[in-house]
């Protein structure tokens, strides 16, 4: 469909007219005509769990943003979930955010039931704040972010470890990722996998730690779990540091892997020892909780803290990428 000759509709509460709203409206303005529904005070009162600005104030902010474009728009009070999109024949498309795309499908189901053509669903990607979470009016109302998505309160991150090296590596990664204050919490949690994980056990251990760290820290923005494990790759054995970032959804990443020689693997496989214990015996001192096996095996070229940093950054990459959309 040629948007320049089509008619679209969109709706919302439009409180704290923020960057996400503006992206939605900007897409709607690509059409020749745009119906905009603003939820009525009565509708908001019945469906929102907090006080919302009056309809007139929200409409005024919307008109200011539209400027000269208001001439192609028809604004109405939205008193139900469907508004004009449910019944008008002259509408071609419905502009929705990724969060409300399901509502678009419900509107089309309703239109089909009453014998009307379905609308084209134009999905606008979510707009993310600099804390890698979606911009929303609820988060603005809680004073976590401003309307442009800048974080206002410290980002709370709960790490499922009491190991100082892991904490230090996580801090290094978070300072590179986020441009806001960070409050880091340490939670000693279990991985619920073997002491020396093999294969996907290490990934599961990282996931378990992230989820438990998140749940043990009410108000945390993210939980982070870290677990190292040995993976078999074409009859060779490599050690990887895995990270899981959890906030209801999980993303994964790893640090660089390095190969373990036959002598080390025989002690791990046949004597039931952990990699850290084996290398500590070789080094004549405990390296497992400090610089790590990689520091000794690489002759000081790589520290465990650096592998943790790599793993944490890697686990955040799918979230960082969302800022580019």
Beta-strand content estimate: 15-25%
- How far is the first residue's CA from the last residue's CA? 23 Å
The SS-based structural class is alpha/beta
The main sheet comes to: 6 strands, mixed
- Assembly type of the chains comes to single chain
Overall pLDDT score: 94
Note down, in words, how this protein is organized:
- With 325 residues, the chain is an alpha/beta fold.
- The strands form two sheets. Strands 6, 7, 8, 9, 10 and 11 form a six-stranded mixed beta sheet that branches.
- Helix content is 37%, strand content 21%.
- It has two domains: 139 residues, Rossmann fold (3-Layer(aba) Sandwich), CATH 3.40.50.620; 168 residues, Maf protein.
- It is built from eleven helices and eleven strands.
Overview in brief:
This protein is α/β, with parallel strands linked by helices. The chain has two domains: 139 residues, 3-Layer(aba) Sandwich (Rossmann fold); 168 residues, Maf protein (Alpha-Beta Complex). It is built from eleven helices and eleven strands.
């Amino acid at each position: 469909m040629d948007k320049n000759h089509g008619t679209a509709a969109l709706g919302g509460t439009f409180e704290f007219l923020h960057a996400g709203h503006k992206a939605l409206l900007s897409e709607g303005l690509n059409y020749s005509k745009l119906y905009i529904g603003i939820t009525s005070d009565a509708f908001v009162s019945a469906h929102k769990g907090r006080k919302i600005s009056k309809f007139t104030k929200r409409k005024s902010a919307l008109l200011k943003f539209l400027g000269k474009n208001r001439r192609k728009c028809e604004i109405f009070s939205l008193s139900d979930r469907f508004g004009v999109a449910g019944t008008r024949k002259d509408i071609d498309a419905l502009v929705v955010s990724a969060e409300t795309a399901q509502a678009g499908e419900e509107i089309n189901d309703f239109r089909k039931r009453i014998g009307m053509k379905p609308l084209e669903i134009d999905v606008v990607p979510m707009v993310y704040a600099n804390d890698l979470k979606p911009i929303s009016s609820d988060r603005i109302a809680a004073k976590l972010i401003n309307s442009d998505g800048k974080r206002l309160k410290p980002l709370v991150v709960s790490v499922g470890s009491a190991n100082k090296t892991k904490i230090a590596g996580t801090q290094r990664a978070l300072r590179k990722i986020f441009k806001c204050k960070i409050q880091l919490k340490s939670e000693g949690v279990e991985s619920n996998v073997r002491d020396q994980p093999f294969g996907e056990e290490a990934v599961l251990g990282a996931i378990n730690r992230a989820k438990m760290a998140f749940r043990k820290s009410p108000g945390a923005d993210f939980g982070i779990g870290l677990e190292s494990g040995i993976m078999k790759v074409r009859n060779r054995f490599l050690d990887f540091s895995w990270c899981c970032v959890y906030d209801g959804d999980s993303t994964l990443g790893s640090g660089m892997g390095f190969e373990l020689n036959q002598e080390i693997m025989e002690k791990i496989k046949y004597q039931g020892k952990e990699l850290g214990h084996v290398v500590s015996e070789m080094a004549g001192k405990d390296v497992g909780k400090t610089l790590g096996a990689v520091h000794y095996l690489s002759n000081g070229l790589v520290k465990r803290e650096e592998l943790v940093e790599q793993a944490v950054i890697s686990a955040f990459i799918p979230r960082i990428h969302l800022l580019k959309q």
